[in-house]
């Protein structure tokens, strides 16, 4: 077998594969002999069927199968040996009137080649790197929420401005019949607040759903309806009061501190606030890191310019899926996936240039750390190394888990690289400012 490469341009090439009878005949003959030994054909004893009949029945299929295997194996080896960085897979060129009765065969395969380019993380325009801080207002709100959560309920005779009211919402036309608890502090509509204030157990109050709550997400859960239905719902609902309570906030004492943080770990309101700030900002760090990953990705896709073998990729997409695509469908698919493909190439270049490849032992250590964190959530703070090793080995035998963990570890490696090498501008914001700036 002989394989040669014809370079069409920087991004396209054709592989020409020449196969002679010596490349496949021995293998084909062996398979046909095995067929003859086991063939059950009426009129012939097992193992005594004439070879001519075996060749007539099975010869062409065996030949085609063996030639295809030969091509596949040698093409893969050729790409590895020649260190060809290809996109997609080699595509066979259509050959009209191909003659399988010949002794020698010639095949051609189109190749799409990966472009060569450089990636610099020192972008001209700095990328924001957010540090999200827990401000005094957020900590005050969190402290109040905790005090309410661990406080006690005091029964009331009529609804006041700070009360929680249990009751049933109904609207026969919309099929609403839902028991819920509402807090007056979370109601936005002044008319609704005025209607509820002074009401007693057993009374029914009519409320309009439009603008009822300060936070829109409360409406579907309160009425027991789908989010989609709640959007733009402008109706009146009846709310029949079953119970009225005022939540008396818990005292900030050692008993509460121990419940929240463990015995003796926090002993004052000041320490509690410091702990809340630390925990909150630790959680914010994950959002900040994800935002940085997304922003660097978008910026690199925007500024790193290179061409792709577009026509080859469209043709490849036509044939690679479960169902063949038309030219138009393949063109649409390419447009949808081009951005992702470009980043895959950029990421691959960064991994190669900065030697970020993941080694097996490194991934297994990462898996152990992940397992240890999960076990800690269930109170197992000091697992035995033997147990960690056994669980990690099972995890590493699952290809889906290996893929998921590899992606997480690579994200960590890229994040570390960006923090060290990219042109970043640190920006300190509150969580409220972060949400407003990032999500509008």
Spans where pLDDT lies below 50 across 5 or more residues: none
Supply the number of helical segments.
14
Q: What's the main sheet like?
A: 5 strands, antiparallel
CATH class of the largest domain: Mainly Alpha
Q: Estimate the strand proportion.
A: 15-25%
Q: What is the general shape?
A: elongated
How many domains make up the coordinates? 3
Oligomer: single chain
N-to-C series of helices and strands:
EEHHEEEHEEEHEHHEHHHHHHHEH
Helix content: 40-55%
Radius of gyration: 34 Å
What is the second-level CATH architecture of the largest domain?
Orthogonal Bundle
Mean pLDDT: 93
Number of strands: 11
Distance between the termini: 62 Å
What is the CATH third-level topology name of the largest domain?
Answer: Trigger factor, domain 2
Describe this structure in words.
By secondary structure, this protein is α+β, with helices and mostly antiparallel strands. The chain has 3 domains: 2-113, 2-Layer Sandwich (Alpha-Beta Plaits), CATH 3.30.70; 152-248, Chitinase A, domain 3 (Roll); 268-439, Orthogonal Bundle (Trigger factor, domain 2). The protein contains 14 helices and 11 strands. It has helices spanning 21-38, 51-81, 136-149, 190-196, 218-223, 227-230, 254-261, 269-303, 310-320, 327-353, 360-377, 385-396, 399-421, 431-439; strands spanning 2-9, 12-19, 86-92, 105-113, 127-133, 152-155, 163-171, 176-183, 204-208, 236-248, 424-430. The strands form 3 sheets. Strands 6, 7, 8, 9 and 10 form a 5-stranded antiparallel beta sheet that branches. The protein has a 4-stranded antiparallel beta sheet with strand order 1-2-4-3. A hairpin with a 2-residue loop joins strand 1 (2-9) and strand 2 (12-19). Helix 1 (21-38) packs across helix 2, helix 8 crosses helix 13 (399-421) and helix 11 packs across helix 12 (385-396). The two termini are 62 Å apart. The mean pLDDT is 93.
């Amino acid at each position: 077998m002989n394989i040669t490469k014809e370079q069409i341009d920087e991004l396209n090439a054709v592989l020409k594969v020449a196969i002679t009878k010596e490349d496949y005949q021995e293998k084909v003959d062996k398979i046909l002999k095995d067929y003859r030994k086991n063939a059950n054909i009426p009129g012939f004893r097992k193992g005594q069927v004439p070879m001519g009949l075996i060749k007539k029945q099975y010869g062409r299929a065996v030949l085609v199968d063996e030639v295809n295997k030969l091509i596949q194996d040698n093409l893969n080896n050729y790409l590895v040996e020649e260190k060809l960085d290809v996109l997609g897979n080699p595509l066979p060129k259509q050959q009209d009137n191909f003659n399988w009765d010949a002794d020698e065969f010639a095949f051609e395969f189109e190749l799409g080649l990966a472009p060569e380019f450089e990636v610099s993380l020192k972008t001209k325009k700095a990328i924001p790197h957010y540090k999200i801080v827990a401000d005094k207002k957020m900590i005050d709100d969190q402290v109040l929420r905790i005090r309410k959560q661990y406080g006690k309920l005091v029964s009331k005779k009529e609804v006041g401005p700070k009360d929680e009211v249990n009751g049933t919402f109904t609207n026969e036309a919309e099929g609403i019949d839902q028991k819920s608890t509402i807090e007056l502090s979370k109601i936005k509509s002044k008319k609704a607040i005025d209607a509820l204030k002074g009401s007693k157990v057993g009374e029914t109050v009519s409320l309009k759903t439009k603008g009822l709550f300060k936070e829109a997400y409360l409406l579907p859960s309160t009425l027991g309806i789908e989010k989609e239905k709640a959007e733009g719902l402008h109706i009146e609902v009846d709310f029949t009061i079953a119970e009225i309570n005022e939540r008396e906030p818990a005292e900030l004492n050692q008993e509460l501190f121990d419940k929240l943080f463990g015995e003796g770990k926090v002993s004052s309101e000041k320490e509690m606030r410091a702990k809340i700030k630390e925990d909150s900002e630790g959680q914010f760090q994950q959002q900040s890191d994800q935002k940085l990953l997304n922003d660097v990705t978008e910026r690199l896709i925007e500024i790193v310019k290179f061409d792709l073998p577009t026509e080859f990729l469209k043709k490849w997409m036509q044939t690679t899926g479960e169902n063949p695509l038309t030219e138009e469908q393949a063109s649409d698919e390419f447009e949808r996936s081009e951005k992702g493909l470009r980043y895959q190439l950029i990421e691959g270049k960064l991994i190669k240039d900065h030697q970020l490849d993941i080694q097996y032992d490194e991934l297994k250590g990462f898996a152990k750390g992940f397992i240890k964190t999960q076990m800690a959530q269930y109170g197992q703070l000091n697992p035995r190394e033997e147990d960690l090793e056994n669980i990690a080995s099972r995890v590493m035998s699952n290809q889906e888990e290996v893929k998921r963990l590899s992606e997480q570890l690579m994200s960590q490696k890229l994040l570390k690289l960006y923090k060290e090498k990219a042109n970043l501008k640190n920006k300190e914001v509150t969580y409220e400012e972060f949400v407003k700036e990032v999500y509008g």
